[in-house]
Amino acid sequence: MAHARGVPILVDEAHGAHFGFGHGFPDSAVHAGADIVVQSLHKTLPSLTQTAVLHLNGDLVDERLVADALAIFETSSPSYLLMSSVSSCTELMYEKGDALLDAWQGRLNKFYEKTAQLKHLAVFRPVYVRDPSKLVVLTGRAGMTGSLLAEKLRKDYRIEIEMAASYYVVAMTGMGDTDAMMDAFADALLDIDKKAVGGSHSAFPAPVLPKRAVPLTEARRGSQKAVRLDEASGQISAETIWAYPPGIPLIVPGEVISHEMVLLLTQYGKVGIHLKNSSGLPRGSIRILNEMT
């Protein structure tokens, strides 16, 4: 639809630098026809943190304009260490990528087979997820929240996961993970599962898009005050609140704080989801406009 109107498509594929090589992993947005695709090498491939690549695809985007924009916004003092890491990573993928991806997929298959024994915790099987390298562990039937499982893994097994949500966690794997590392994660889940008492949970309601009362700029510049979250229903937010990951705002300045939003934010806090805000206020508080506009 976008291409039919001459509109280029830009895709943030930060977690998909390993896409497009086959070996059981998904195709890349480049293969899907996107015009500009950004990938973070360091998230799944052997490259230093902050390294990334920008793919240009098709003829809707003028390469010269992209180069001009990069010249304006990029630093004038690039890190040669990072650039060398990008070169080394791409060279490694060219020379040994097939063997490394096969080995990675083999470790993932072994993990999925091993965790099929879980009785309370549950791991999403590859049939349900497009990228098998992201390990999604459901916690609802184990009588614990995702945050509690993340805490147990960190404290008792020295394993740090990527994301903890209400009743699931997401663990990132990469090409550099070893057999021992994958076995350790599977064994930790099996051990925690044995000690779990079982339970159930109600699904969280999906966040409702808040209604806008005033323009964002007006809300940010207006007279403001801090109130307790349980006193904010019906007020106009003067700040942004989000959970990270994924970093998508739940509410932004100028939007009405509904009763449903207050309940949702309160629930998030109860299950250990760490909410962030732009004001720096402590948890349980929110900045609002002094007067309704």
From TrEMBL:
Transmembrane segments: none annotated. Keywords: Decarboxylase, Lyase, Pyridoxal phosphate. Its cofactor is pyridoxal 5'-phosphate. Pfam families: OKR_DC_1, OKR_DC_1_C. GO terms for molecular function: arginine decarboxylase activity. It is an enzyme of class 4 (lyase). Residues 2-127 form the Orn/Lys/Arg decarboxylases family 1 pyridoxal-P attachment site domain. Its EC number is 4.1.1.19. Residues 216-260 form the Orn/Lys/Arg decarboxylase C-terminal domain. InterPro entries: Orn/Lys/Arg_deCO2ase_major_dom, Orn_Lys_Arg_decarboxylase-I, Prn/Lys/Arg_de-COase_C, Prn/Lys/Arg_de-COase_C_sf, PyrdxlP-dep_Trfase, PyrdxlP-dep_Trfase_major. PANTHER family: ARGININE DECARBOXYLASE, DECARBOXYLASE, PUTATIVE-RELATED. Belongs to the Orn/Lys/Arg decarboxylase class-I family. This is Arginine decarboxylase. It comes from bioreactor metagenome.
